[in-house]
Amino acid sequence: MLGNFTFHNPTKLHFGEDALNKLSEELKQYGKKVMLCYGGGSIKRNGIYDQVIVELKKAGCEVVEISGVMPNPTIEKVLEGARTARMENVDFILGVGGGSTVDYCKAVAGCAWYDGDPWEYYFKNWQPMTCRWIPVGCVLTMAGTGSEMDSCSVISSHTENRKMFYNFRNPDFAILNPRFTFTVPKYQMVAGIYDIMSHILEQYLSGTDDNTSDYIAEGLMRSLIVSSRKALVNAEDYEARSNIMWTATWALNTLIDRGKATDWMVHMLGQAVAAFTDATHGHTLAAVSGAYYRLLISKSHDAVQKFRRLAVNVWNVCPDGKSDEKIAMEGLETMEKWMRELGLAMNITECGAKPELIEGMADACPICQGGYHILNRDEVIQVLKDSL
Fold first, then answer.
1. Which of 123, 241, 286, 366 is deepest in the core (most CB within 10 A)?
2. Which residues contact 377 (CB under 8 A, 6 or more apart)?
3. In percent, how much of the chain has pLDDT > 90?
4. CATH entry 3.40.50.1970 includes domain 12-180
């Protein structure tokens, strides 16, 4: 383990089939006025909304609703929620949905009492949050982003063709009932699964020391692979869906990035694609991964060694009689076979990208410094072209 670090995660998690029963007692610790945020209405169709309302009534809450939170929430939608939260002087924000809804709630919580332009202040310039914060909780209905136990909020601006993130604060608590994920459509389920895998890989594919975090990451990936295949066969396999949900949380609650550098270029590339196409996050990550990872293997001896380890320890590639490069590439090809098995987008054309958008996407793609090779703009363009 390299360097000095602090690990602190303040989010309380309630996990399991009876987890929602904890919601009313959690809400009693805050004020009476709750802003309830959710997406397009699926929680009303599948009955989760009614169950949440029962708990809100138990806690004696007055409810203000914000619906229509989109999969890639926009800054305009955030400003709408922030105005409502401030006008209503809400005491608490409760998100019911997937990671986008939770991201949205964090953004609203940090923007409601800020008097300036939050897009410029937070998302473009990363200035410190000094205004009043509204506490946040969530009832998770989709596994993938890990937003239930981290501070990150990813928000889009269609006018600028940018998808940016800011670290606000963690939710105070999160309710995780794996059964709430059963009705998520397959396209969204597999997107979430690959988002989990990508989160782990962004932290795993960096560093050269013998790091405990990497051993944990390998176990998480192996569990995810097994459970994803079970969930493909039976979307209501509770064991599989519970393992996927728990893996998603631990993939991005900062545990496995302690004591090491991290990469995050796949996310920057994928978010640049989504900024122009509004495509589903996990699928944009899948679409750019292969080209980026091949570039890493071609550029860095350290990357070859880590991909070799990934191939052997996670993808069960037999190393006998093979060069390190051959093992690394065989591992990547095995991963891509699994990705196709899930039904992920394997190129950005499937995500709605066109060749004429490449230059703009490159402009929208921040360059991260923590991986095995730091891309220049020409390489970003090449990766995007190779991903078409």
1. 286
2. 362
3. 97
4. yes
